[in-house]
Amino acid sequence: MGWNTWNTFQTKINENMLKEMVDIYVSSGMHDAGYEYFVLDDGWMAMERDQKGSLVADPVKFPQGMKAFADYVHAKGLKFGIYNCAGSKTCAGYPGTRGHEYEDARLYASWGVDFLKYDWCYTDSLNAPEAYKTMSAALKATGRPIVFSICEWGDHAPWLWAGGVGELYRSTGDISASFVVRKPIGNWTPQSVLSILDLQEAIRKYNGPNHWNDPDMLEVGNGMSYVEDRSHFSLWCMLAAPLAAGNDLRKMSPQTRQILTNSEMIAIDQDERGIAAFKMAMPDSLELWIKPLKNNEMALCFFNRTGSAKKLNLNWKELHIADTLSGLNVHFDNQVFKLRDVWLKADKGLTDGKLQTEIASHDVLVFRLRPVSKN
Ligand code: GLA
C-alpha cells in the first residue's frame, strides 16, 4: 500500500510540494490506515546522466538532491519508492536504465530506496522476462530489500514468469479516471476502471502473496463520482490488488479520505490468504464478486455496472458458492453466516432470510461474512 505521484501530477513534481504531500500522508491518517510507500514516478531525473554515467535528480525539482528527499520520507516513518524503465529512456523521455542496471541499483540503495517501479518504454527487441530478471538480480545484489514493481502492462504475460522476479506486476495498460468508457488521449487510449476489472478474473489463479497481479494505481479522488470511487476501491480490494493512491492529498475531500482509509475494506484487500475474487452473474445484470478470506470468512461484493438502479432480491438459502481454486464450497441452506456491511460499518443480521435492497447505478454493496458455528 502506498501513494504514487503519476495519476495526478505526471512529471510536474518538486521537492517542496512533495514534502507537503509526505506531511499530509501522515497527518491525514493514510499512514495509520496502512499506506506505507511514497513513490516518485517518472520525471524525477535530470535529462542526462552525469559524466560518470550516474543518474541525477533534476536539480530544479530537487535542489537538495534525492538522498535528502529520501531521508525526509524515512524520517516521517514511510518507505521511499522511485521509478525507472528497462529501456533506453523512460516513457516521459528521461534516461532509462538499459545497460546501467547494476550501477542504478547501487545508487538507489545508497539513497535508501525501498521500492522500484520499472517500466517498459523504449525497449526495442529486449526480452521482457530477461530484462526484468537482470534488474531483479541487480537489486538483490545491493543487499538492501527493495520491492520490485514490474510494469510491462501485461504485454508478455508476466503472471507466468514474474513470481520470484518482482513482488507485483502490472496486468494491464494504464488506468484513467473514467469508470466505464475508455477515453482517447491523442493517439492513445488508456483503460477505464471496468475495462481493467474485466481483464482480472482470467488471471486470478496466478495471484498470491509476493506475486501480486497489479491492476494499476487508484484513481479515487481524481474526478469520478463518489459512488464510482467507492466501487473502484471496493473492487480493487476484492482483487487483493496492491493499493497505490494517486490523488492530490492536499485537496483530499472527507469522502475521498473515508474511501481510502476504510479499515474494513482494507482488511479484505490485505487478507493473508491473498486470494483474488471471482464473479457470479446475478439476475438483472447484477454481479456478485466473492473473495475467500481467512478463518472460513468471505467478502461478498454485489456490483451494479449498469446505467440504472437495480433491485437485489436474494433468498440466501438458494445461494451456493463454489470455487475450485480456494476450495470454497458453501451451501447457504445448511450454513449460516453473520453479515457485516463494510461501508456502513454495521452488523446486518444473519444469512437466514432474504436480502432485498436496491443498488444504485455503478454502486456496490459489500459484506464480510463470518460463519456462525454449528452446535
Ligand atoms: C507508463 C506507466 C505509467 C507511468 C508512466 C510514466 O505509462 O504504465 O504507470 O509510470 O509510464 O511515464
Major β-sheet strand ordering: 7-6-5-4-3-2-1-8
In N-to-C order, the SSE pattern is: EHHHEHEHEHEEHEHEHHEEEEEEEEEE
Radius of gyration, taken over Cα atoms and rounded to an integer in Å: 22 Å
Low-confidence parts, pLDDT < 50 over ≥5 residues?
Answer: none
Q: What multimeric state do the chains show? A: single chain
Biggest sheet overview:
8 strands, parallel
What overall geometry do the principal axes of the alpha carbons give?
elongated
Bound chemical compounds: alpha-D-galactopyranose
Structural class: alpha/beta
Strand content bin: 15-25%
State the separation between the terminal residues, measured CA to CA. 40 Å
Please tally the helical runs, counting DSSP H or I stretches of 4 or more residues. 10
Helix content: 10-25%
User: How many β-strands, per DSSP?
Assistant: 18
Mean pLDDT rating: 97
